[in-house]
Write a structure and sequence with these properties.
8 strands, 5 helices, four-stranded parallel sheet, Purple Acid Phosphatase, chain A, domain 2, alpha/beta
Length: 173
């Protein structure tokens, strides 16, 4: 299966306050996100992380997280991803932008939401992060961030069924 997520911000304590994340500490936040990731994503699944994985500049932090998370992981670089995250050997691929086909649909992947994108008039879908569920989406445009999807990665089917959902995912598993 193929999964999508973004804006995990592992180890980024201010995110709890900034994004009103329902966790008492960054340790609880990170533990919950790892558990939810691994409950959804299998060892052989593909997962596209659309940026802001961790802001930590500790060269071992991204490596330890990537080793703890299931799946073959692809990074679409976000504005808070330092070189230690971007350069980590645990990623299957790293890019600023990607186009992939899933279930017969063209997906445009980038950390940032687009106003327009290739083949948008022909049904192409824009998946992004960065806005933490605060941006009014355009037609065929979806924020795949953890703030929108109960702090876990999701499939395209879940994304497409989500139209109209708002921020405020629950914290309990």
């Amino acid at each position: 299966m193929i999964f999508f997520t973004s804006d995990t911000h592992f180890g980024d304590a201010p995110r709890i306050r900034i994004d009103h994340r329902p966790f008492k500490s960054i340790a609880a936040h990170d533990k919950a996100l790892i558990q939810r990731w691994n409950a959804a994503v299998g060892l052989s699944d593909e997962i596209y992380h659309l940026g802001d994985f961790t802001a930590s500049k500790d060269p071992t932090h991204a490596s330890e997280l990537l080793a703890a998370l299931n799946g073959r992981k692809h990074l679409l670089i976000g504005n808070n991803d330092p070189p230690t995250t971007v350069d980590d050997k645990g990623w299957a691929s790293v890019a600023h932008y990607a186009e992939i086909e899933v279930e017969g649909r063209l997906l445009i992947l980038c950390h940032y939401p687009f106003r327009t994108w290739r083949d948008m008039g022909k049904g192409a879908i824009d998946l992004h992060g960065h806005s933490h569920g605060r941006l009014k989406e355009e037609t065929r445009q979806y924020d795949v961030g953890v703030d929108v999807f109960d702090y876990r990665p999701v499939t395209l089917a879940t994304i497409l069924a989500s139209r109209g959902r708002r921020r405020g995912a629950r914290a309990d598993p």
